[in-house]
Amino acid sequence: MAHYRLSTKEQQTKVGNLQVSGTTSAAFTQELNMDAFRFSISWARLIPSGKLKDGVNKEGVQFYNDLIDELLANDIQPSMTLYHWDHPQFLEAEYGGFLSPRIIEDFRDFARVCFEEFGDRVKMWTTINEPYIMTIAGYDQGNKAAGRCSKWVSEKCQAGDSSTEPYIVSHNVLLAHAAAVDEFRKCNKTSHDGQIGIVLSPRWFEPFHSDSIDDKEAAERALAFEIGWHLDPVIHGDYPEMVKKYAGDKLPSFTVEESNMLKNSSDFVGINYYTARFAAHIPHIDPAKPRFKTDHHVKWSLTNHTGHNIGLGDERGIILSHPEGLRKVLNYIKDRYNNMPVYIKENGINDIDDGTRLREDVLKDAFRIEYHDTHFQQLHKAIVEDGCDVRGYYAWSLIDNFEWEHGYTARFGLYYVDFINGGLIRYPKDSVKWFKRFLTRVIGETREEDFEEMPLVEGNKTLQEELRFENWAGFFVSANQSLRAEEDHRCAFGFPYSRFVNIA
After folding, report:
1. 3-state secondary structure (DSSP) of residue 468
2. Which range of residues forms the domain containing residue 202?
3. Consecutive H or E run containing 172
4. Which residue of 98, 140, 299, 425 is most buried, as measured by CB atoms within 10 A?
5. 284-331: per-residue pLDDT in tens?
6. What is the rounded distance in angstroms from the CA atom of residue 477 to the CA atom of residue 496?
7. Looking at 448-495, which runs of residues are DSSP E strands?
8. Is 41:485 a contact under the CB 8 Å cutoff?
């Protein structure tokens, strides 16, 4: 959901009373008893111009090699994302980035370099992070890069067409994904047990009025656009019929060759789940103001027809906690996509810090503990009761980061980062203690007194009390943070991620 750039030379952290300088990814992940670390590659750090013919930055390659090697030396599996919304400015200036199909082959070259340089040690790969968010926020709403939208949508947008560009960008994103997967599967330098997939970011949708057939259908349409728009092509090779119906001739079509390349181009689906919305049917839209957001005749809201909130946490602004939505999203994928393997690639909640709050107050994050606790309960039910094939979980995020247009005011981290006083010193929040004890319990080492000290939420049964962990064998919980960084060659694939941590 966000990116935070780290300097390997200038970081400092505090674990307990110990202050440490240097690379902290492995140290933090170990401290939490987690066994995998998700990060993203910066295309511009690897290939500054975006074009392989212009050369690869050797220092960038070394940056990522150092990170990967340190993770592995500490028994932490690296999970690498190729694209988290940052392509080189040269490509944006030359042909408009993902607005042009020219980016597909440049992305193929970038992916091939990554597979050749890092594929012998990285076994889990994802191509594109959250294509829906990058497409809509970047080209319909204009509040994220590339900051394009119709002028009537936002005066901040200098250019764009909210009606057509989201579909064009999304189409090219899907074809870039397929090109990268094609390279991955014919490359001879990656691990034989590596896997590759795409990461979606669905909200769950409930009908605004539970008795309204129109609103129930609106919720189905919202899910078709949030999930099916990108998952149908990578599984079946084409867009869902509902998306075709409502997008009309604005939706590009795939050639037979493109469809065949897309089909089954994801070994698993990554899910970033945070929250949910109510969906209401909109019978009429303004033909003078066409845009993606209204094409499917759905209006989102935080409250339903009775004024009931979709979840807790409106005081934090970005996310309302609706853990039941995670279970429902997983079942939606199980039922419609033949129970394909799923990894929860992001799940977490922010805290608002306007710069006036004391650090000690921010460290007391009982709401975050409750968020993860309740989401784990629903995740457990999805796996054990519903049979959803979920193989891993990454918490967002390891440390506080720069959260796009929200800057440093939205703190998602398990570790607090002091952005003001220099040195970027990190401090563990209460959720760090909770995760550490939760995961120690999972592998059977926690003493009873550990649970007596564990931060609890008043009136809420903890996951440790609720669940029998022998049901979790083969599941892993991992740290998640966006980092970035480059070189040149060609690579292979496959990986049984059911084994990262044997929880019993």
Report:
1. coil
2. 12-499
3. helix 165-186
4. 98
5. 999 999 999 999 999 999 999 999 999 988 776 679 999 999 999 999
6. 15
7. 477-480
8. yes
Report pLDDT for 441: 62
Q: Tell the burial category of 450 from Cβ atoms under 10 Å away from its Cβ (0-12, 13-18, 19+).
A: middle
How many CB atoms are located within 10 Å of the residue 460 CB? 15
- DSSP code of 392? E
Q: What is the pTM of this model?
A: 0.86
Domain assignment of residue 2, yes or no = no
Coil vs helix vs strand at 479? strand
* Pair type for strands 415-417 and 390-394: unpaired
On the CB side of 388, how many CA atoms lie within 13 Å of its CA?
28
CB 167 within 8 A of CB 292: yes
Separation CA 369–CA 463 (nearest Å):
10
Q: How many CA atoms, within 13 angstroms, populate the side-chain half-sphere of residue 212? A: 17
Q: What proportions of the chain, in percent to the nearest 5, are helix, strand and coil?
A: 40, 15, 45
Rounded (10°) angle between helices 324-336 and 366-384: 30
Residue 158, burial from CB neighbour count under 10 angstroms (0-12, 13-18, 19+): exposed
Cα dihedral across residues 245, 248, 249, 252: positive or negative: negative
Give CA separation, 295 vs 163, 217, 225, 231, 250, in Å: 8, 14, 10, 19, 10
Q: What pLDDT score was predicted for residue 503? A: 20
Count of CA atoms in the C-beta half-sphere (13 A) of 181: 26
Return the number of other C-beta atoms located less than 10 Å from residue 360's C-beta: 9
357 in a structural domain: yes
d(CA 169, CA 173): 6
**111-138 tens-digit pLDDT:** 999 999 999 999 999 999 999 999 999 9
Rounded to whole angstroms, how far apart are CA atoms 278 and 218? Answer: 9
Sign for the CA dihedral angle at 340, 476, 463, 504 comes to positive
Q: What is the pLDDT of residue 4?
A: 28
* Residue 230 covered by a domain: yes
Active site residues: 130, 346
The total domain count for the chain is 1
263's tokens = 């089909």
Beta bridge partners of 299: 280
* CATH code for the domain of 467: 3.20.20.80
Residues in the chain predicted with pLDDT less than 70, given as ranges, are 1-25, 316-317, 441-504
In 224-274 the beta strands, taken as DSSP E runs, fall at 269-272
Phi-psi sector, 427: left (phi>0), alpha (psi -120 to 50), beta: beta
CA nearest to 43, candidates 480, 485, 404: 485
Positions of E strands within 195-328: 195-200, 204-207, 269-272, 276-281, 298-301
Look at residue 504 and tell me if it is in a domain. Answer: no
In the chain, the N- to C-terminal Cα span, in Å, equals 31
What's the CA gap between 107 and 262, in Å, rounded?
15
The single-letter code of the amino acid at 143 is: N
